[in-house]
């Protein structure tokens, strides 16, 4: 199943039918993509999305990053609760969002290290950054 993990209905169907899933995304809110794939994501070194911080942060920026990381987990657990309840009903067992997304076979990420902060990744993450780049005039 080729699906977008922002709305995990495709992943719920893939798990229910026991077929592999391929995720196609740019970025997932709340760093669920990094948590599900078990990639390291320390808030003191990896800038949060939409903060415009670089990898060379001041102490205040690192504290801000840590605060945003902790608030992300609270807000996202609340936002994705309906999907967790739906998945639990369909799969007949309690399921968390992290567990739901951890079954992805391949993650096709529409990003490139030229535009983003380099980060450690696991082997089933493939960067397809060139598809978002237009030809220069």
UniProtKB/TrEMBL annotation:
<dbReference type="GO" id="GO:0016020">
    <property type="term" value="C:membrane"/>
</dbReference>
<keyword id="KW-0808">Transferase</keyword>
<dbReference type="GO" id="GO:0008194">
    <property type="term" value="F:UDP-glycosyltransferase activity"/>
</dbReference>
<dbReference type="InterPro" id="IPR002213">
    <property type="entry name" value="UDP_glucos_trans"/>
</dbReference>
<keyword id="KW-0328">Glycosyltransferase</keyword>
<keyword id="KW-1133">Transmembrane helix</keyword>
<dbReference type="InterPro" id="IPR050271">
    <property type="entry name" value="UDP-glycosyltransferase"/>
</dbReference>
<comment type="similarity">
    <text>Belongs to the UDP-glycosyltransferase family.</text>
</comment>
<keyword id="KW-0472">Membrane</keyword>
<protein>
    <submittedName>
        <fullName>UDP-glucuronosyltransferase 1-5</fullName>
    </submittedName>
</protein>
<dbReference type="Pfam" id="PF00201">
    <property type="entry name" value="UDPGT"/>
</dbReference>
<keyword id="KW-0812">Transmembrane</keyword>
């Amino acid at each position: 199943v080729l699906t977008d993990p922002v709305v995990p209905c495709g992943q719920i169907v893939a798990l229910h039918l026991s077929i592999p899933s391929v995720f196609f995304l740019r970025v997932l809110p709340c760093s669920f993509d990094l948590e599900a794939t078990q990639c390291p994501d320390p808030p003191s070194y990896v800038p949060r999305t939409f903060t415009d911080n670089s990898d060379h942060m001041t102490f205040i920026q690192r504290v801000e990053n840590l605060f945003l990381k902790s608030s992300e987990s609270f807000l996202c657990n609340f936002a994705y609760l309906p999907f967790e309840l739906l998945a639990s009903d369909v799969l007949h067992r309690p399921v968390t969002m992290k567990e739901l997304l951890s079954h992805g076979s391949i993650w096709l990420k529409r990003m490139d290290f030229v535009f983003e902060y380099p980060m450690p990744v696991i082997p089933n993450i493939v960067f397809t950054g060139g598809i978002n780049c237009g030809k220069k005039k």
